[in-house]
Every structure is written in structure tokens, then in C-alpha cells.
UniProtKB/TrEMBL annotation:
Annotated PROSITE patterns: ALDOKETO_REDUCTASE_1, ALDOKETO_REDUCTASE_2, ALDOKETO_REDUCTASE_3
Keyword Membrane: no
Catalytic residue list: Y54 (proton donor)
Coiled coil stretches, renumbered: none
An example molecular function term from Gene Ontology annotations: oxidoreductase activity, acting on the CH-OH group of donors, NAD or NADP as acceptor
Protein name: Glyoxal reductase
């Protein structure tokens, strides 16, 4: 079964967001990112996740315009980088991203990391951008439950998405439970553990369904109600990553994968990052 554009979650403001998207972290701007997105769109992807810090927004925008797919069928995300946080700084950074992307509006705008002393002012700017109709949804990235509690204590608008490192070795139970309780959609970056998929249970489940360990993990993401954005520049992998809608894991298999959790991060800890 090919990826269907109808495979979406509904955010707390009613906007539909695809369960599966393409992440373009570390994908070189220009021809490479354009070709990668072209391959993904041909495979059925409709969601593309970039960020100012990825330095490829120009290529992403070019690919979107040349995709042959109507703009309203695509879901484009970008993020406000740490050095651009603050109220006025965020307004300026967003406009710069929008110009690079060459898009009239974005579908989702996120705060990239919870920069202490700044993320509340940054959020006020996101609220203004959202109220002005320049983005369809706003959210955060790398926020733990305590960051969300702090932010929501003063926010006028509740975040619609929280994008975090999430995979079988890092299930972030507290943050995930908080997001479920507060109708904030959890989204996984690095869902494939940077390729560290050589785990017996993933391989054995994969054999049962005729799927790769990567496909098993991405299916597990979906059954945990987590949006997932695997990154690849390889056409065969991009296609393979999309072929996860034609099988279902049992409750026992989901629990077996849950049990792999080690609270292991491949990226920085949001409580201790220096950039």
C-alpha cells in the first residue's frame, strides 16, 4: 500500500498533519535537497520538515514550488533557531525563513530548543505570527514536560506539536503522557536511532511481516500515535520508509518494542545543551 495523503492526525486547532514526513537535517542545500524532496513527493510524502539551522530552506522552497503538487496538499515545517530567539528577533527570523522558502505561509512553525529565559518571548512571537495567519500551526521542539508546563502557564495559545528525539531506546514516557493529556501532538526526530537498528526484536518482528527493522520502528511510531519524520537521501530508503501502512503490530509487539527503552539519547539533552 502506498502512502496516502489522508493518513493524517488532527492537531488541537483542527489542522491536519501527515503522520509521516521527510526530515532534511544535514541535507545539502540546492540540487541535493531538491532531488531528495522530489523523490519523497513521488513516493507519496506530503510533509517536509526543515529548519533555519539546517541552512537548506531555499532549496526546500524551490522543491515545493517545482513539485507539481498543489501547495495546500503539502505540509511544510520550519523552526526558529536558538540565536534568533526573543520576541522581535523571532519575528525577523521567521520573515527571513519565509523569504528563503518563498512561501506565503507555512504549515507549522516550531521553537527549535527551549532556550532558558527566551522561549516565552519567542512563543509570544509565534502566537503573533499565527494570529496574523502566516502559519497554520505553532509548536515547540525538544521541550520536556516541565518546559511545557512553564510555557503554558503564560501562553495564550497552547502548542499544537512537540517535536522531540523519540525512538525505541528513548520513549520519553513522561513527556509523551503529558502531550497526550494536553492534546499536543508528539512528533519524533531521529526515529531510526541514527541507523542503530541492529536489535534482535526488531529483526524478528520484521521477518514476520516481511519488513525491515526501520519499517517496524516507523510502524511502532504510528501505533504510539507519534508523527514521524525519518531522514534519508536514498531513493530506495525514502520509498521503503513510506511502506508502513500495510501492516499492524500486535499489542504484544508494541510492548516488546516499548521495553527496549534505555532513556538513551543520540542527540543533546534539552536540559543541558550549549548552542
Amino acid at each position: 500500500m502506498t502512502l496516502r495523503t489522508a493518513d493524517c492526525t488532527t492537531l488541537n486547532n483542527g489542522v491536519k498533519m501527515p503522520w509521516l514526513g521527510l526530515g532534511v537535517w544535514k541535507v545539502e542545500d540546492g540540487k541535493i535537497v531538491q532531488e531528495t524532496i522530489e523523490q519523497a513527493i513521488q513516493a507519496g510524502y506530503r510533509s517536509i520538515d526543515t529548519a533555519a539551522a539546517y541552512k537548506n530552506e531555499t532549496g526546500v522552497g524551490e522543491a515545493v514550488r517545482n513539485s507539481g503538487v498543489a501547495r495546500d496538499e503539502l505540509f511544510i515545517t520550519t523552526k526558529i533557531w536558538n540565536g534568533d530567539q526573543g520576541f522581535e528577533e523571532t519575528l525577523n527570523a521567521f520573515e527571513e525563513s519565509r523569504q528563503k522558502l518563498g512561501l506565503e505561509y507555512l504549515d507549522l512553525l516550531l521553537i527549535h530548543w527551549p532556550v532558558k529565559g527566551k522561549y516565552k518571548d519567542t512563543w509570544r512571537a509565534l502566537e503573533k505570527i499565527y494570529n496574523n495567519g502566516l502559519v497554520r500551526a505553532i509548536g515547540v521542539s525538544n521541550f520536556k514536560a516541565h518546559h511545557l508546563i512553564d510555557l503554558m502557564g503564560e501562553a495564550e495559545i497552547k502548542p499544537m506539536v512537540n517535536q522531540v528525539e523519540y525512538h525505541p531506546l528513548l520513549t520519553q514516557r513522561e513527556t509523551h503522557d503529558f502531550c497526550i493529556e494536553n492534546h499536543i501532538q508528539l512528533e519524533a526526530w531521529s526515529p531510526l536511532m541514527q541507523g542503530n537498528l541492529d536489535l534482535d526484536i526488531l529483526k524478528s518482528i520484521g521477518v514476520k511481516y516481511g519488513k525491515s527493522p526501520a519499517q517496524v520502528v516507523l510502524r511502532w511510531n504510528l501505533q504510539k500515535h507519534v508523527v514521524t519524520i525519518p531522514k534519508s537521501t536514498t531513493p530506495s530508503r525514502i520509498k521503503e520508509n513510506s511502506e508502513i501502512f500495510d501492516f499492524n503490530l500486535t499489542k504484544e509487539e508494541v510492548a516488546q518494542i516499548d521495553a527496549l527503552n534505555q532513556d538513551k539519547r543520540f542527540g543533546p539533552d534539552p536540559d543541558n545543551f550549549d548552542f
